[in-house]
Amino acid sequence: MELMEYDDLEALIVRIREISGFDFSGYARPSLLRRASRYLTTHKMDLPQLLLHIEQGGSVVYGLIQELTVNYSEMFRDPDFFRKVKSEVFTYLESYPTLRFWVAGCASGEEAYSLAIFLKEAGFLGRSLVYATDLSNKALTAAREGVFTLGNARTFSENYLAAGGMQSLSDYYHVAYNKAVMLPELRRNIVFSMHDLTGDGAFNEFQFISCRNVMIYFTLELRQKVFRLLYNSLSMLGFLCLGKRETLRYSGLEDHFKVIDSTLNIYQKIK
Amino acid sequence: MQFTFQRQVLLGIVFSIILVLVVGYVSYNAILLQQENTGWVDHTREVMRVSESVKNRLLTTEANVRGFAITGNGAFETSYLQASNEIWKDVEALRKLVKDNKVQSVRVDSLSDLLEARVGLMRRQYEILKAGKYSADTIQRIVLQGKDIASKIEFSFRRIENIEEGLLVEREQLASSSAVRAKQYIVMGSLLFFMVIMLLYYFIRKTYLAQLASEKVVQQANSRLEELAREDQEKNWILKAAIEVSSAVRGEPTLGQLSERLLAKLAVVTGSQVSAMYLVTRSGRVLERSAVYGVSDPASAPAFVPFGEGILGQFAADQGDIKRMNVAQGYLQVKTATGHSSPGVVLMKNISFDGSVAGLIEIGYLADPGTKVIKLLEMVSDNVAVAIMAARAREMANELLEKTQLQAEELESQQEELRVTNEELTRQTSLLQVSEEELRVQQEELKQINAELEEKAFMLEEQKGTIEEARDQIQMKADELERSGRFKSEFLANMSHELRTPLNSILILSRILGENKGARLNEEEQRYASVIYNSGNDLLTLINDILDLAKVEAGKIELIYENISTESVLSEVKNTFQKIAENKGLTLQVEKSESCPAMLFTDHTRLLQVLRNLISNAVKFTSAPGKVSLSISKEEDQLHFVVTDTGIGIPFEKQASIFEAFQQADGSTSRKYGGTGLGLSISRELAGLFKGSISLTSVPGEGSVFTLKIPYLTEADQQAAIPVQETVAERVKPAPPAMKPVASENGKARRLLLIEDDDIFAADMAAKAESSGFEVQIATNGREALEMVGSFNPTAIILDMHLPDMEGEAVLKELKNDMRTRLIPVHTVSAGSYFDEEMVRKGAIGFMQKPVDERSAQQMFTALKLEGTDLEQQRILLIEDDAYQSKYLGDFLTGNNIFVLYAYSAAEALKILETDRVDGIILDVRLSDMNGLDLLDKIKQNPQWNELPVVVNTAEDLTQADLGRVMKYAHPVVIKTKKSNERLLDEVKLFLKKIQPKSREPEAPKESFSNAVVNAEQAFVGKKLLLADDDMRNIFALSAVLEDAGFSIEIATNGKEAINKLEDNPEIELILMDVMMPEMDGIEATRRIRQVPRWANIPIIAVTAKAMQGDREQCLEAGANDYISKPVDVDKLLSLIKVWLHAA
C-alpha cells in the first residue's frame, strides 16, 4: 500500500520549502517518494500528521530534510577510484604549494578521512585542507567525531589495501569501546561544514572536488545547476570526481573538462 | 548440655563399669607387681645359693685332689672327678640365672674362666700325682699357682655375691612397697564405687518425680486436642463445602449457569431454603439478577437493582463483606408443595474481585445456619468471584472471537482478491518480461545498427573531408584562374594604353609622310608610308579592341545610363552603315516593332558599340546580293535587338567559340574578311555588363541571326537599383575587417599586409605573395594600415614609403613602438632610392627599389617568412639558473611547440624582456643574482610587463609570506616534483590561451564599482577593515575593490587569525567575516569577538555561500550585524559597509 502519492509529495516539497527554505524540487522523485514513505512508516504518521508536524519548523523540519536525503558512505569506496587518484591526480597536485580539497556530500566523513589518509601517505596533508560538506548536521556531527563501528573496519581495511594503501588502516585509528576512532591528526586538516549543493553558492576555490554519488538524487535540471557550482568552485586545472554511475554528460560543461578517466569519472578543468 | 534421664542413667552405669574395670585393673597390676618383686627376691636368693654351691664344689674338688695327693686313695680320685664335673653344671645354672643381668653375666664368664684355669691346674696336679712322676718343686709350683687362682676366684665370688645382695635388698623393698600400693588401690576403688552408686540413686529418683508431673500435663493437652479436632471437623466441613461449591462453579459455565449452580449447591450444602444472586452489569453500578433458588415468585426478586437502592443496592454500594439479618415473619416466602413458611435469617454476601463488587448473593434460612455458613461464604467468595470474572472474560472472549472470525473471513476474501490481483500481476510481469526481452533484442539490434551507422557516418565524414578538400582546391584553382584572367586583362589594358602612345606617333608621322607635303618621296616611298599608316591603323584598331575587351573583362567599364530615343539609335545605325552596305550592294533594313517603347534608358555608347559590332560583322560576311536588317522589339521585360543577315552563316560546331576572344569561325576568316575577331567577344562582355545576353542562330550558307537581349529599364528602376548597389558596395567594404579576425585565426599561418597606394603594383605584389603562400590584404594608406594591423594580425608587412596620408617612416615607427606589433617583420619598398641601412636601423628587415621583379620579390618573401616564423609560436622566457634543469625544461616545452628564450640570471631576463617579445615567463625563485620574487616584483612594476603571465617554479616550499607575494599577482606556483613539468606545461598553455582576452576577474567588479555612488564621497579613505576569508579568489577580488574605495585592509584566513588581527589592530572599524573557514569558522569567531566587551559594537558582516534562511539566522544569532551571500555583489557590499560604518 502506498503511503504517499506523487501529488502528496509535491505538496510536501512545497511545504518544506515554505517553512525552511530548503528546496527539494530538484530531487529525483522516485527516490524522494521512497524516503518520504519510509519516514511516515518509521514515525507512524500519515501525510496530514506530517504536514502538521513540520509546522513546528526548526529542528523538526531539519530532521525531516536529513532523513529524506540519503547518507551512505564507506571508507575508500571504489578502491579503483582511490588508486587512480593517488597515481594520477596526486602526482599532479603535488606541485601546488597549498591545496584545497572539497568533498561535497561527505555524509559521515568516510571519504574525507580516506582522502586525508592518502594525502598523509603522499606527504602533503600538511599543506592541504579538506573541506567536507554535507546537508545533514547529524551526519556532520558523526563525521567530526570520526568514530566508526568496528564491524565496518574490515571492509574499510580491504578497500584501503585494494586502493593501494601503504600501511595498515589500523595505523590510522585506535579502538575504544568497540569503535574505531580516527586519529586526531587526520581531523586537523579537515573542515566539516554544512553546505547545501542545491541552494548554496561557491565558497572557495579548490584544486580537487569529489562529488560522488550525490547527483544521482537530483533531476537533470538541478544537476546542471550543481555542475555549474562545482565548476565555479574549481580552480583552473583542478580535478572533478564524480561517482561511478554519474557522468559529466548533459552538464553543459563537457568541453570545459579534460577526461582523466572516463570509467572512474575523473575530470580536469581546462577552460 | 542437657542429658535425658535415660542417658543420665546409662552414663552412670557406664561410668560404674569403667570404674570397676579401672579399679580391678589397677589392683591386679599392683598384685602382679608385688608377685614379680617377690619372684625377683627368690631369684636373687637362688643365684646366691648356686654360687655357694659352685664354691662348695670347688672346695670339694680341691679337698679331694689334696686327699688323693696325700693318700693316693682311689676314693678321693672318684670324688674329685665327680666334683670337677659337677662344678660345670652349677656354673651353667648360674649363667642361666644371671642371663638377665649383663654385668653379672660378664662376671660369671670371668669366674668361669678362672674356674676353668683352677680346675685345669688341679687336673695337672691330679695327673702328675697319678703318674707319680713329680717333683716337690713341681707340686709346690702347682700348689702356689692354685693358691693364687683360688684367691682370684674367691674375689670373683665375693663380687657376684655383693651385687646379688644389693639386688636382694632393693628387690625386697620394691616387693613390700608394691604390696602396700596394691592395698591402697583396692580401698580407693571401693570408695569410688560407693560414691557412684549413690549418685545414680539420686538421679533416678529425681527423674521419676519429674515423670509424674509431666504425665499430668499430657492429660491436659489431650483434652485440648479433642477440642481442636472438633474445630477441625467444622473446618473440614467448610472446606469440603467450599470444594463442592468451587467444583460447582468450575468448568466453563456461562454467568447464568454459574449462578444457578452456585445457588443450588449452596442450598444442598448449607441447607438454605431460598436464595438469589445478582451480578454487577458490565457497565457497572447496577446489579442484575442472574439466578434465584427456591423463590416461589421469581418476579418478586427485582431483575435490576442500582447501587445504593434498597438494602441490597446499598450493601453493594458500601462494598460490605457479609450481612446477617434476622427478619420478621413473612419477609420471605418459602413454599413447597405441601406448605410454606418464612425464613428466619437472611444472609447477604458481596462477591468482590480486586476490591470492587462483582456480584451479590442473598440466602434465606428458616433457622440460624450458624457461623460455619458465613465462613463458607467468605471462603468461597473469592473463588466465585474468580469464576464470575473468568466467565465474564470468557463471555467477552467469545464475543471477540466472533468478531475476529468475521474479520478473518473478511481478510480471507481480501486475500482472495489479492491472489487474483497477484495472478494478474504475475501474468503482466511475464508479459513485461517478454516485451522486455523483445526490447532488449531491439536494443541490441539498435546498437548494432547504431554502430554501423556510426561507421558509415565516419566514412561519410571522411569522404566529406576529401570532397571538401578537393572543393577547396578547386575553388583555389578557380580563384587563381579568375585572378590570373583578371590580371591578364588588366595587364592588357595597361599594355595597350602604353602601346597606343608610340603608335600614335607612328600614325601621325606616317600620315604626314604619306601626305608628302614636301614632295620629297617618290611614289614608291609614298606607298610605303601609306602602308605604314594603314598597318598602324589596323594595329590601333586591334589595340583598341584589345583594350576594350580587357577593360570589360577587368571590370573597368561602367555603364552610364541615360534616356535616349529609340529613333535616334536607329538613325545612327542607318547613318553609319547605309553607305557601306550600298557600296557592297546589300540592302540595309532598320526597324522597330510596335511593342518597342519610344524611349530607352540605357548606356547609349555601349549599346551602339554592340550593335555596330554585330551589324558590321553581318555586312562583312554577307556578299551581294544580300540583306542585313536590325529590328528592335520588346518581349516581356527585355529589349530584343535582332541582327539578321543572309551571309555565309556559321557552322554549328563553331557557334559556341566565335564569342571567345581571338577565335573566329575559321582561322582564315580574318585573312579573307579582315578585322581583329575581337568584336563579338567585346559584344558579349558588354551584353553581360548590361545584364543581358547575345544569342545566335545560324545555318551555314543561308545566314545568321544575332539577338541581343537586354533588360528593359526605366529611369525609376535604375534609381532604385543604384542604392542597392551602393549598399552592397558599402557592405562589401566593411566586410573584410569583420572577417579578418576569423581569417587570422583559421586562415593561413602566414599573413602579409601590403601597404601600397599604387593599385597595379599592389595587385602585382599581392599575386606574387599569394602564390608564395601568403594570405594577403592590402591597405592603401597609413591609417588604414595601422587599423588593419590590429584586426588582420599579420605575420609580415610590406610597406611602401610613399603613402598619400603619411610618411612610410611614421608608419614604421608606429609599428615598432606598439608592443603587439613591434616584432612583425617589415620590408620596405619605394620608387625612390632610400638608404638601406637607415631603414634597417629603424626596424625594417630590408629595402627594395621599385620595380620589383619576380626574383627579388621571392627574396623578400623568404626574408619575411623567416622573420615571421617565431611570431606564430608562443614565446616563453625561462628564467632558471641551473643550466641542466633549464635545458631539460626548455626541451620539454620546445617539444610541445613552445618557443623558449633562456635566461640564466635576473639581469639576462630583464635584458631579454627589454629587447624581445615574450608571451609569458617561467620564473625560478632561486637565482644567482637576485631573489626570484624580487625579480617578479620588478617585472610587475613595469607597466609594459605587468600584464605578462608568470609561473613561479620552485624547488623548495615557499613560506607563507613568500606565497602571499606571489598570490598577490594571482600567479600559479609550481613546486618541482617528478611530474611537475606536466603541470607547468598546462599552466603555460593556459595563460598562452588567455593572452588574447584580458585578465578575468578583478576587472568586472572594478567597473561596476567605479560607477557606484559610494565612490564619489570618498567616505572610506583611511578606514581599516578586516577581511576574514580563506578563499584566495575572494580575498583578491574584494581587497582590490575595497582598497580602491579607500580602505586599508587586514586579511585573516581563519577565525583565530581574525581575532588575533583584531587584537593587534585596534583601529579596525568593520569586519567582513566568511562563514566557512578552517580551524575556527566565522560563526564561532563572531561569537568570540562578541564576548569581548570592547568589540561588542564593532560591525561584523557575515559572508557566506549559503542560501537557507536558517544560516542567516545563525549568523545573526552569533552576533553578526548583517549578512551578504557569495558571490559578493560589490555595490551591495559597499552599501552595506557604508550603512554599518555610519551606524557604528
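qc> Residues 6-20 of chain A form the longest helix (15 residues).
qc> done
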